[in-house]
Amino acid sequence: MRTETPVTIRLKDYTQPDYWITHTDLVIRIHDDHTEVESRLSIERNGDGELPPLKLDGVDQTIIEMTIDDVAVEDYHYEHEQLILQPSKAQFVFRAVTHIHPNENTSLEGLYKSGTMYCTQCEAEGFRKITFYQDRPDVMATFTTRIEADKAAYPVLLANGNPIEEGELEGGRHFATWHDPFVKPAYLFATVAGDLVRQDDTFVTRSGREVSLRIFAEKHNAHKTTFALESLKRSMKWDEERFGREYDLDIFMIVASDFFNMGAMENKGLNIFNSAAVLASEETSSDDRFERIEAIVAHEYFHNWSGNRVTCRDWFQLSLKEGFTVFRDGEFTADMHDRTLKRIKDVDFLKNYQFPEDNGPNAHPVQPQEYIEINNFYTVTVYEKGAEVVGMLNTLVGDELFRQGSDLYFERFDGMAVTTDDFVACMAEVSGQDFTQFKRWYTQAGTPQVDIEQAFDAQTNTYQLTFKQSCKPTPGQSEKQPFVIPVRMALLDQSGQELTIDCDGDFNADTQVLTLSQAETTVTFRGLSEAPVASLFRDFSAPVRVRFDRPEADVLLLATRDPNAFNRFDAIQQIYMDTILSLASGAFDRVPDAVNAVVEAALNDAELSHAIKATLLRLPTYPLLVDNSDTIDAQRLVAARDQLLNHLAVQYVDQWQSMTQSLASADPYRFDAAEAGRRELQGLSLQYWVKAGSDEALNYAEALYRAANNQTDRLNGLSAVLKSDDAGRKEALLVHYYRQWKDDTQMVENWLSLQTSATDVSVSQLKDLMQHEAFDLKNPNKVRSVLGGFAGNFKSFHDDTGEGYQFLAEQVATLNAINPQVAARFIKPLENWKRFSPERGEMMKSALSHILATEDLSPDVLEMAQKALA
Ligand code: 0A1
Ligand code: ZN
């Protein structure tokens, strides 16, 4: 644990380092009780004049020996987690031998033990736990890594780059040496030692080079690597075709680790994955999981260019690689499956997680201006809003120029550490557009709101739209300047047909995009014989909140007939949302007819794919409802959402039943968009059918669970049962599940999260679960299954006792000493306390205060708790 007082790092203070490291030579000697790291760093002065001190980051290391050009270094000191020494030459080799203790490293940063293997996680600042280094992304070196370990226990020894040598050592030990010829920052370093099983394949690049592909896993996970390997090949091909990016090394490796803080990591040539984000089988992985794995494999692979070949100058540029890479993986998934569905899911995710972040105490720009702990900035804002910003650039320049801009970016900055400005400048250069104002999307936090008014003039056949944009203050930013907002749009007639647009605004007829750049813009549309219905922000062309008070008939037309499926989805969700919030506030005492009209239209629409139909029939989630209301009475919201759910369940019970039954299939499992859509719609209709209360439905759900030959059907059956009141049946199925699958890591994680998220759960049940043999507080996946599941279980987490808040706070305090990065993430469920009714807000606040009062708080937890309370 670090003991230093946290310091705030600011973008405006960025300066280049005083020294460059051109080559890094490492020998890592793994022993049972410690690991010895010997580094030789080829260092060169950056600039001239008097030689400044050399400052090397390093934590949790014991120094054994240090030399400069083979002369022992005696004069040095260590402060603020840096080793400081005075070189006497502008070019030299610094050598250090240090000892570290991976077996005791529960932070899972640096070198650590995961199950039976050793592995590393260096992003953002983990390399300083391995050796002394200028641990910052603008210091880029080639690397040679030799690993030595006991051969029987660790037969597989891996590092970045290409393998160059391996051999035997005394005492049953062996070594392997790897060389990475591409310069990289330390955060992309990786090494692995383990008794691993591997699956091999090859990929021939478009220029005809053969690349070896290997996926490694511990023996218990080894049967689940095929899907990831296939996904990898699809990603490699797609990146060549869509972005002209070819793989560069002779070998590409993926290692699955059961202990991992995040989803996966793009280390050069040696990606390390959370097992849950790479291992798949139809028996154990749901359709959602398959899709997620494919996307994460692609994401990490795409980083080889957007992140590795071209990297970030400093951590304030994180979205340069993450926003762009999320955009790229989103395009990949859209191309592989269903573009509209992907858009619906992405926007849903953004509104569920990023909008609340932008609307709370941790709101920060896509390019943050300061941080205490960079690990806290791997956020939905940097990733997902960052991807939206890249998507808007694509919308503004068009597909062709976007590709040209991306080519220029990769070519110009290959092997360099650059900034988001450099990326935008490439788009400006190829398109001739000026993005000065657009760049506010990178520097201003908060979700802009666009208020819209309309007027139709039957005399002149004109229709006017007035857009007023605003953005609420966010921490540290009270005033906001207008954003550039692309509005993809159409005008519809009363039958839902699109009309030709003739207007005086900044409208691009090819892309059907109207661009707003002022605080207020009025656009006049000509040649309209009757009032049109405007379909605005099609496909969510900008990450904004839209307020448009208009006749119910207009919204109904969009919800039932908009040819843009995304906007149809959006209009329906708006109707559900208004209904639930009005039921909760008491403005409505029953479900209005408009809801029945849109539900019936969706139910009876034979043109819709199963997957899209399911999205139209699903009610908004709690985070979305919370984000759209002023003060939340949590349990009234639960009751209101439940009332609508019940109403739909009962009103359409025959349809739910017949849909559930007709969507059943005995065919062998296949993961593709059509089959996944069928299973999704069946799962949803089954939930409604069970909710309507018949034994027949419950029996069907249990039978689906028991007969399932794949995890999606199994979960569809089980979750429907878990949502019912049949305590005996719930218990029996959960016991059955665990007995059947207790030897499968991913299934056990699912089993834990089902109990915390898919059914009502009390704090005492949670405590019992944490005592279960399946639980391990040192394993982030298990922690996420239990605590993450619970915090996302709105009804239970926000029950009237408020016990859940205190419980979560206690877990954060305990985790702070084990794994600060994971601990800090669990502050988020409490951070929006100000939005809840005062009494409840106080309870949430007092849980946060409990966290802040914990001794030895890590910078990660301290920063998040302080912000949440501010
Ligand atoms: N760069 C990885 C995710 C990642 C981020 C941070 C980490 O530790 C602080 C670990 C992994 C990605 O985008 O996939
Ligand atoms: Zn990434």
From TrEMBL:
Domain Peptidase M1 alanyl aminopeptidase Ig-like fold: 446-548
Keyword Metal-binding: yes
Residue intervals of the Peptidase M1 alanyl aminopeptidase C-terminal domain: 553-870
Presence of the UniProt keyword Electron transport in the record: no
Signal sequence segment: none
Any one GO biological process: proteolysis
Function: Aminopeptidase N is involved in the degradation of intracellular peptides generated by protein breakdown during normal growth as well as in response to nutrient starvation.
The family this protein is said to belong to: Belongs to the peptidase M1 family.
NCBIfam families: pepN_proteo
Name of the protein described by the UniProt record: Aminopeptidase N
